[in-house]
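We emphasize that the prediction below concerns an isolated chain of 187 residues; any contacts that depend on oligomerization or on bound cofactors are therefore not represented. The input was used exactly as deposited, without trimming of termini.
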Amino acid sequence: MEKLRLHLEEIISLTDDEFEFIKPFFTPKRTLKNQFLINEGDDVQYEFLVLSGIFKVFYLDEQGKEFILQFAKENWWMSDYQAFFQSKKATMYIECIEAGEVLVSTLESREKLASELHKMEHFYRTKLTNGYIALQQRVKLLLSSTPQQRYEEFSKLYPDLLQRIPKKLIAEYLGVSRETLSRLYSK
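Result of the prediction step, given as a token string:
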């Protein structure tokens, strides 16, 4: 739980009593490589904070082609947020691509924490805002940049992921073929 405290204190300061209040709202869960935390069609009851490991959030189109929306690594949050916040069935998958550990929390826990400890409301709002900004930047990059520019931006933002994620998955995330990624990687 110390990792949780460090993560929260990147944005808010906490007393020991406040952290003791927060801890029961999160449950640790170990994950195995290739394990799915969410499958399309599931009821999505949880959001996850990554403590260790790497995960991919993706969906499949009608032809079964995979589209990766997000890689999640340490200190990143993930879920199928439309399903999580709106009590809908999942349209996405979350798969563990490097074994690790997550903290699991429910929407009810999130709401209770935010209403009873306003520092947590500020924390969640800040994380949501930052996530939305990152998503807009990703969409903008996908729509208006070359494969070279997408690769360079990914390399700049996530240099550690280049070593931890299979090249095939990085190519999918960038919207390029494996061969194109190989050419970009060799430059």
